[in-house]
Amino acid sequence: MRAPRAGFGLHTAAAVVVANMIGTGVFTSLGFQLEALRSGFALLMLWVVGGVAAVCGALTYAELGSTIRRSGGEYTFLSHIYHPAAGFVSGWISATIGFAAPTALAAITFGTYLSSVFPVLPARWLAVGLVVLLSVVHGRTHRTSGGFQRWSTTAKVALILAFVAAGLSLVAEPRDIGALPSADGVSNVFSAGFAVSLIFVSYSYSGWNAATYVTGELRDPRRTLPRALAIGTLLVMLLYVGLNYVFLRAAPAEAMVGRLEVGYIAAGYIFGPVGADLLGITLALLLVSTVSAMVLAGPRVLHAIGEDYPTFRLLSSINARGTPGVAIFTQAAISLLFILTESFETILVFSGFTMGLNTFLAAGGVFLLRRRQASGRIPGGVVGAGGDGESARGESGASAETPGTDQPYRTWGYPVTPLIFLAVTGWTLAYILRDRPLEAGLGLGLIAVGLVIYAVTRARDRRTRA
Fold first, then answer.
1. Mean per-residue pLDDT for 177-194?
2. Residue 178 buriedness (CB in 10 A; 0-12 / 13-18 / 19+)
3. CA distance to 65, 73, 134, 240, 379, per residue, from 405 (Å)
4. Phi and psi dihedrals of 128, rounded to 5?
5. Residue 390 pLDDT
6. What is the CA radius of gyration of the chain?
7. Is 42 within 8 Å of 194 (Cβ atoms)?
8. Which of 277, 357, 361, 442 has the most crowded CB, counting CB atoms within 10 A?
């Protein structure tokens, strides 16, 4: 019997999705939503609608990933479906804004929570130590990397479930939040306040696509990827709805309006005076899994870029244990720079627009991919990274899995499923363009810089080949 292929299985892939999605957003955004909405039904529907959109995106990405079986996420999808320039810009943005900066932010938040409970511990150096430690862990074997991610994510889910259970059983005077639909609640769902709040909920759901960054390292990606994306996203939606229900049930709305620390406030009503310290330690533990997932997934984009462009060839290095060590420690170095300089804060203001544009273009690509398959321009099974369907190797020799006769996963509910995701994401992008022109302009400027870097890189690579 042939030994099973080395790589990540379903549990690890789903853990990467869950850990990437659950950060601090769900513990901090309710206070700002309460400024626009007071209906418990509408507030909970925010997380349901955001979750449905994320699930639709995950199911759409599952088809892309099981057809184009190569790591790299949007970098690989956009390179194949549209043009290598689109993929390069997407990969460059993902490697910096998409992963390194959020890694730094989550690590600093981890340090801040622990430092608030244990003031003798410096927050910034706790953040540095966490990034370095997790980079070493994920730079070892797939078994070590996957094992740590599975257990840290399992602990995260268990802690959240314990918090929800405590909120349902320990609150002495639970609030009637009006969770059932009513005329007022339904009208709130169709209000401008609901639409604005949905943008921030969508940010909290970002990360549902994380497993596509390690597609090429999954065992049986045709089956594993769709299941990991769907299971991980559905689980997070249930946890998010449960957490917000507990927040609203435990603490009065007036105590949370406009406040960032809604988790602390709710914990105080659930556990008493020690609630804040308990939640501080809990959130710090939750963020270990979040940082871990970003350290695991993000470097696969850099690795794919290194395979495709000779200028960045060093990033494609694989160590003796089969992991992309150079890419992992390169992303770690960028994250440490953000931590030590705190310059990442400006980038995070407009990251939602650029990353949203990435996912919008990738999800829309499923229609183009199917059209090409129907016309016979690409095979119905696995296709390579080169974009023409003729080879499993890109221009520079980047390899994808050998084409097979098995058909890829097909998006459940197509074409409605991808259209739902595109509608919600497109509305968000349009809102940012209209009401946040500075952030949108910065995002478009970053894209333009990426195109310039791409042009320079291609010209240099041509001269190198000549």
1. 81
2. middle
3. 16, 23, 38, 40, 9
4. -60, -45
5. 35
6. 22
7. yes
8. 357
